[in-house]
Each structure stands twice: as C-alpha cells, then as structure tokens.
Amino acid sequence: MILDGKVVATARKEELKKALQDFPRQLHLAVVLVGNHPASRSYVASKERACHEVGIDSQVIQLDEAITTQELKEVILSLNTDPKVDGILVQLPLPEHIQEQEILETIDPFKDVDCFHPYNVGRLFLGQPIVQPCTPKGVMEMLTYYGIEVAGKRAVVVGRSNIVGKPMAALLLQANATVSLCHSRTKDVAEEVRRADIVVAAVGKPKMITKEMIKSGAVVIDVGINRIEDSTTEKGYRIVGDVDFEGVREVASAITPVPGGVGLMTVAELLWNTYTLAKYRL
Ligand code: NDP
Fold first, then answer.
1. Active site residue 91
2. Which domain holds residue 44?
3. What's the pTM value of the predicted model, to 2 decimals?
4. What domain count does the chain have?
C-alpha cells in the first residue's frame, strides 16, 4: 500500500477549514526568511500557498543575509507582542553567523508553530504537548489515517535530529511503540532496521534504506528529501528520499513515496499548529 501524502494532507486541510469557520477571528502566520537560499524560498512559498488555501493570512518578512542575531531577535520580539500574529516561523537554516538556538528561544512559546522552543520541546517529552513538531506529527497523522496500529509495535527511527528524529521517537513512544533511535554512531543500522515493524528514515542520504534491511510486511516512512543530479529532467536534478522506494515497496506492507509523502504533511500540520496555538491563547 502506498501512503499518499497528498490524500492525507488534503483531508487534514479540509478538516482545518471547517474548524476555522467557528474561530472568532482571522488567523495570521508570520514567516521570517533570512537571505535568499533557493530551497528555503521555495519552502516558504509552499507554506504561503497552503495558508491561502485554508484561509489563514500569512506574511513573509524577508530580511537581509547580513542581519545580526540581535537585529533578528528584535524582529521576533515585535512579532511576539503583535496581537494579530498567531504563529511565528523562522525558516531554517539561518546564515552561519546567527545564533540559531538563541533565535528559536526568542520566539514566544505560544506562537511557536514549529515546536522548536525548549518549553514546547520539554512539554512534548513530558507527554503534555500543546503543539507537536510538524514533520513527526504529519507522520503520526498518516499512520492514523491509514489505520496503522502503532501500540506494541517495534519502531526504529533512523536519524536523531532535534527537528525530526528525536521528536519522532517521542511521538511513537507516546503512541506506545517500543522505539529505537539510530544515528551515525549506531554499530549496525541494517540489523536494527531489520527488526522493525515500523521504520522511519530521516537521515538525508539518498536511498540508504534498501530492500535487504526491511522485514517483510514492515511499514516504511521516508522523511528524507535529497536532490540528486539527473540530466534527463528540466531542472537537472530530481528529489529522492532516504529509502530505495522501488526495492523496498516489494517487501513493505506500506510505504510513503518521495515526493508526495511526508513533505506535504509537514505543511498541513504547520497550519494546524497555527490554529491550535491561537485557540490555546484565546
Ligand atoms: P540532520 O542532518 O539534522 O540529521 C541527520 C541524522 O541522520 C543525524 O542524527 C545523523 O546522525 C544521522 N545519520 C547520518 N548518517 C547516518 C548513517 N550513515 N546511519 C545512521 N544515521 C545517520 O537532518 P534532518 O533530521 O534535518 O533531516 C533528515 C532528512 O529529512 C533530510 O533529507 C531532510 O531534507 C529531510 N526533511 C524532510 C522534511 C519533510 O517535511 N519531509 C522535514 C525536515 C527534514 P548523528 O546525529 O550521529 O550525526
């Protein structure tokens, strides 16, 4: 079975549109973009489009690459106190000279739509989240949509970043899976993955997860987004995941494609987080 991100993301957005009809005021998301990174610009554009689709106002604050940490903090502080702003998102990565953690900690935790502030991360790991990070939440929503049981299953997450791997493990644990988290120092990743009923790959290495690593009937979720050169395409590259889709689909019971999988869910859950925080603050 193919777990179709487009189908699930559309359903989530429709559900949100209905919820927004009963909300007493217009929601507003502020997206802060520093510099001109092409991939970041394209992610920001897709977030704006998605806001528009469900009826959330969005505002992109484009800042010069040379901005200092202090100046960027001041921009965020003014968004924190702006009553019309419900959600603040700082598009990562930031230029190297900026103190990223300091910036993320400046965002009001109750406007922190990415769930990167230590307050929200702490609540997540205590099992008392207000919001959940968009990509892992999107994965959980996909599993729910397709009726895939998580409780009691052995789940292996490959990658331990703060954005994907660690919160993914926390959400699977909360859903009562038995969770292992692999990383670059794991002795035998293949051996760990082979034991999994549910595999989540979030590494950033094209086609790293192969058919030979997957137990027959496992559910495979591919979070990876990798650009590989391909002279046969107009752009000269194409996007592939961390999973060798064609090989793995022969043994997996369910698998997400790339593109068309988790990436679409991330944006849908960002919209939901904007709503959830606005409701919480109200
Ligand atoms: P990071 O680079 O922050 O983290 C990668 C993780 O993979 C690290 O924990 C690293 O281990 C681990 N790793 C690296 N090499 C290996 C290896 N050989 N074996 C096992 N583990 C390894 O990446 P992100 O988590 O930010 O992103 C991961 C992927 O997901 C990327 O392709 C990214 O583009 C994509 N992504 C997709 C999103 C979506 O919406 N679909 C959203 C966010 C990211 P260590 O900690 O030891 O260095």
1. yes
2. 24-116
3. 0.97
4. 2
